[in-house]
Design a protein that fits this description.
There is one protein chain. With 336 residues, the chain is an alpha+beta fold. The chain has two domains: 34-170, no CATH class; 173-336, no CATH class. It has nine helices and ten strands. The chain has helices spanning 2-13, 24-33, 42-67, 88-110, 115-138, 147-167, 199-207, 211-217, 302-311, and strands spanning 172-178, 187-189, 196-198, 222-229, 245-254, 263-265, 272-274, 283-292, 318-324, 329-335. Strands 1-4-5-8-9-10 form a six-stranded antiparallel β-sheet. A two-stranded antiparallel sheet has the order 2-3. A hairpin with a 6-residue loop joins strand 6 and strand 7 (272-274). Helix 4 (88-110) packs across helix 5. It is globular, with a radius of gyration of 22 Å. The two termini are 22 Å apart. Mean pLDDT is 88; it is low at 1-24.
Length: 336
Amino acid sequence: MRIILIIIALTIAIPTIGLTQVDQRESSKFQQLFQKPDTLNKKRFWALNGTLATGYTGVVVALDRVWYAQYPRSRFHTFNDMGEWEDMDKMGHLFTAYMESQLSSQMYQWTGLERKKSAYVGFAIGAIFQGTLETLDGFSEEWGWSWGDIGFNTGGGLIYLGQELAWQEQRIVLKISSWRRPLDELVLTSTDGLHTTSLRQRRNDLYGTNIGEVLLKDYNALTIWSSANISSFIKNDNSKFPKWLNIAVGYGAENVYGGFSNRWTDDETGAEFVLPDGEFRRYRQIFLSLDIDMTKIPVKNKFLKTLFSAINVIKIPAPTVEFNTQGKVKFHPIYF
């Protein structure tokens, strides 16, 4: 689902590419497409409603038939997965719900719906979509309805809605970054001594190998950030503090190769593997770093504003201090 959000963001940004190749008249028409009307544009409003309803139905049906159909169905049940994946999954729910609320709200602002109403609509759309997926989980033996997921979904939406109602702007933005660190070719022997695998193979099987999977799926590479724009909290209009400079706090985890522990069973052989806890102890990380609010960069071109808004979901590489549950403090000259 996070991949869908990135595709939406990139789709908004892609039309800006090659802008210089169109003539002035076409550029003007294209530019108008990105302008928000002062009053409700009913054509845009109903076209957006129809598009979202169709997209929602298509995505849910596709997930049910392509993804959930691969696993046995069950009666509706709940599942307590707090602590699983060192709660990186929960941070993903927080980020996804925030992005769904923000993108949906911005789309309704594009129709001319006033900002406050758009914020409520965005929150509702995020809650409905996330709630639908959680319901599908509830009827699958593989997973289950998670109150933890619901809590973080709601929290992500409220982070967006609360700021819109209080400040009419997003002073604190949720972002992501991801960078897969090098990994030694450690050979592992199964508990029965009959099979072998490697840690790299486990990582690839679990988190994938292509750039999209690494960016959004590898919990050892992924960091979820809360990026605060300092100038937005400074009441002095004459302040010299850079309006684009942010302070970011991130959350991550390392040595996560299983849900609740680094023990897993190979699907093909049924062999059980255990990662040595002494050398690969799982731990959580808190990061403190600098960031840039791309929406605060002073540009007049509406297409560049759209592009900057789309890529503002990515935390920029910057010097970073790490605090982790191993009791260590690390400084990274550049961390992404």
